[in-house]
Amino acid sequence: MTTNGVLLAEQARPLRAAGLHRVTVSLDTLRPDRFTALTRRTNHAQVLAGIAAVAPAGFTGTKLDTVVMRDVNDDELAELIEYGRTVPAEVRFIEYMDVGGATRWSMDKVVSRTEILAMLERRYGPIEAIVEESSAPADRYRLPDGAVFGIISSTTEPFCASCDRSRLTADGVFYLCLYAPQGVDLRGPLRRGASREELAALITGAWSRRTDRGAEARLRLRDRSPLVQIGRLRADPHLEMHTRGG
Questions:
Q1: d(CA 65, CA 135)
Q2: DSSP characters over 101-121
Q3: In terms of CATH, what superfamily is 2-157?
Q4: Is the pLDDT of residue 4 over 70?
């Protein structure tokens, strides 16, 4: 489960008791003022309290997702890794993507995987790439002292061909790609009484026909402006990443 962490402090134990086995929390900054500027909310302390509640609730394998933006939070990379040690959690740095509500996105604000590694090597020394068979979107790396972190480089080095991720919104729309402008409605058939077999056919049929290569297509563009303009985003909330669970 991926969460913004606001309610996690009170819900961590009930979620674990319900059978949830792993939690990923979005955390773009450790600084309350930056958090407020980025989210327009003042509950940074709640998010940190939620993260602190994860391990005592019995969760392991916790991850912290950080979208890295140039001149916004790219000076916090080492701080976030050090914070991750204390939780404990593995930090995953995500290249800034031109999806959803990133209406002010521009390529010059993207901090690439190469740059992230260079920044961290200046602090920690040589970094080792971890070679492993995995369907996870992050490439993982090990610091000289053994600490592990990940980088999701979907903007500069997209992995569409091997991506096996999809998303289901709270109101039942099945999306096959973060860049997809439309999804498959599952709530309508479900409410009309569709059988398990019919719903399964809808899902597997959509997946087997998918040709989505959103990140790769965007990388090939010469004039790469934000994917979604603010007017369109207001007209269709499904295009927002927090609505999709992105």
A1: 17
A2: T-TT--GGGB--HHHHHHHHH
A3: Aldolase class I (3.20.20.70)
A4: yes
CB burial string 123-144: b at 16+ within 10 A, e below = eeeebeeeeeeeeebbbbbebe
Residue type at 25 in one-letter notation: V
Q: What is the pLDDT of residue 242?
A: 74
Spatial contact of 239 and 175, defined as CB atoms under 8 Å apart: no
**110 and 155 in contact (C-beta within 8 Å)?**
yes
Place of tokens 């080095």: 157
Residues 6 or more apart whose CB falls under 8 angstroms from that of 184 comprise 173, 174, 175, 176, 202, 203, 206
Residues in the chain: 246
Whether residue 229 is predicted with pLDDT greater than 90 in this model: the reply is no
User: How many Å apart are CA 210 and CA 172, to the nearest integer?
Assistant: 18
Cα 34 vs. chain centroid, distance in angstroms?
19
How is the chain split into domains, by residue range? 2-157, 162-244
